[in-house]
Request: fold
Amino acid sequence: RSFLALAVLTAGSAFAASPTPAVTSVIPANAAGALIINNLKDFSTKVSNMAVRLNIAKRYGMPVPPDLASYLARIVGVTQGLDTSGSAAVVVMKPAGEHPTWGDFKDAFIILLPTTDADTFMSGWTPGAPDTQGIREVTFSNGEKGYAAVIDKKWIAVQATRESLEQYLKRTGPALDQSAAVIKAVDDNDLTL
Reply:
């Protein structure tokens, strides 16, 4: 559930438009793909407003939190340090092998969440000490285990398996193409794949 909440927090942010997300600088060139989100706070507001207009609380008996991003962060034990105005991404790393199948992508997703203070952000996850690669084992508020690493003192990279996070940390080549066409595509769209 923790990874689902993190994925919803990240993927759902697609409705917000803002300047080119800084997270594009940490999406590796050797990724199979990425979902780039511009602004968590704007998304949170839009989704909450949409849920109210659709009368979700009455129809489905689900309360609508006024700040969805912070609500989802609290579900996974993050009470401080989330940069709700920051950009986020889900990066899909290329699985090993020449002809990967859909099942090979199971652990290929790396969630990148923006922080105002990475150590404060992870404090609710009972983080272990970082190893030589900077990877920490974390325990989410529901008891699930995962792995996290601080990227460029700004993002937290999260994954269920150490191996997948290690693959991300070995990223090769320059960051995602920063050409004018790519930047325009990211700027012009709320959600960029």
